[in-house]
Specification:
By secondary structure, this protein is of the alpha+beta class. It is built from 11 helices and 10 strands. A 7-stranded mixed sheet has the order 1-5-6-10-9-8-7, sandwiched between helices. A 3-stranded antiparallel sheet has the order 2-4-3. Helix 1 runs parallel beside helix 4, helix 5 crosses helix 8 and helix 5 packs across helix 10. The chain is elongated, with a radius of gyration of 39 Å. It binds phenylalanine. Phenylalanine binds next to strand 9 and strand 10.
Length: 337
């Protein structure tokens, strides 16, 4: 037995002298002291030896095992050192990895700028749910069931009383229900309508809603606020005009146009030769809407407006197809650095 162990050690030393890499070393390690290695097996077989030999052989085997472990560990260290000094030396002069910075999405850019402008005019920003009750989306906005205005806003209903909001206007009602006057808020976010996709329609889009209710609020306040907004977004030289427009929750109601930036209002192809571009709906809050939330219509008046963010972004950045915003084409998005 002793001899056998001696042979084994010799063979081991020969092999270890020839190992070239860590894989080979690992193989030898397994062969000798792994779970099924020579030494391990011999240790297991001790029980079959004559009683008086067992302690000595056991001791010798354990000692040998330790020796081999030590030699292997030293060899491992050598390989580790080599690895750092030769193959994978850290080279300070190699240029760093270039990681790509994303860009802020144009819709988000418009939203951020809008919030800033209205914060500057004393408005607060409030957030509302995209899954909305029929009551807030229509009823509370003076659009009862069977009202023809519902047909203009083909909706995604979830149940007869719950739908994906078709506009941000429900936040007018939600805010007034919760808070006493005066109120000055804007609310932005996603809206949904069952529109077929084309260059100006997507079933999901964004809106910006504004509402101000207080004593002595008049149409001229609305015009002033909208003019300020348009001039900050599109440029100081822009003019704003109001045309009569119908929305059940405002009276009087208006469609708001901004003068065309390309032709300076003279008329060109991009504004349909009118000199004007339609950008939002607006008006004085309908007294019935104020009544429904329990506001005192004798004392209070208000204005509201709502606009499509994609439309604003298309005009601001001269984008001619709304689908570009949602295709995630980096060639498009990278232009908004
Ligand atoms: N919510 C209306 C729409 O989606 C826009 C609007 C908002 C009009 C507020 C008037 C006042 O068309």
């Amino acid at each position: 037995m002793k001899e056998k162990i001696g042979h084994l050690k010799e063979k081991f030393n020969q092999q270890i002298a020839l190992v070239k890499d860590r894989a080979e070393l690992e193989k030898i390690k397994n062969e000798y002291i792994g779970r099924k290695g020579y030494i391990t097996r011999m240790l297991k077989n001790i029980a079959t030896l004559p009683g008086e030999n067992r302690p000595k052989i056991g001791q010798l085997l354990n000692q040998t095992k330790q020796e081999l472990q030590h030699i292997i560990a030293e060899k491992e260290k050598d390989f580790l050192k080599q690895k750092f000094v030769t193959k994978e030396t850290f080279d300070l002069t190699i240029p760093g990895k270039n990681f790509k910075m994303g860009t802020i999405h144009p819709i988000e850019l418009v939203l951020q700028q809008t919030e800033e402008i209205f914060l500057g005019m004393g408005f607060r920003v409030v957030d509302g749910p995209e899954i909305e009750l029929d009551y807030y989306n229509f009823e509370g906005l003076n659009i009862p069931k069977e009202h023809p205005a519902r047909d203009d806003q083909d909706s995604f209903y979830i149940t007869p009383e719950v739908l994906l909001r078709t506009q941000t206007s429900p936040m007018q009602v939600r805010t007034m229900e919760k808070e006493p006057p005066p109120v000055r808020i804007i609310s932005t976010g996603k809206c949904y309508r069952r529109d077929s996709i084309d260059s100006t329609h997507t079933p999901m889009f964004h809106q910006i809603e504004g509402l101000a209710v207080d004593k002595d609020i008049s149409l001229s306040d609305l015009k002033g606020v909208i003019t300020e907004f348009c001039q900050q977004v599109f440029g100081k030289d822009r003019k704003v005009r109001f045309r009569p427009g119908y929305f059940p929750f405002v009276e009087p109601g208006a469609e708001v146009d901004v003068s065309c930036g390309l032709c300076k209002g003279r008329g060109c192809r991009s504004c349909g030769h009118t000199g004007w571009l339609e950008i939002m709906g607006a008006g004085m809050v309908h007294p019935h809407v104020l009544e429904m939330v329990g506001y005192d219509t004798e004392r209070l008046t208000g204005f509201a407006f709502g606009m499509g963010v994609e439309r604003i972004a298309m005009l601001k950045y001269a984008v001619n197809d709304i689908r570009l915003f949602f295709e995630n084409d980096l060639r498009f998005l990278n232009q908004f650095k």
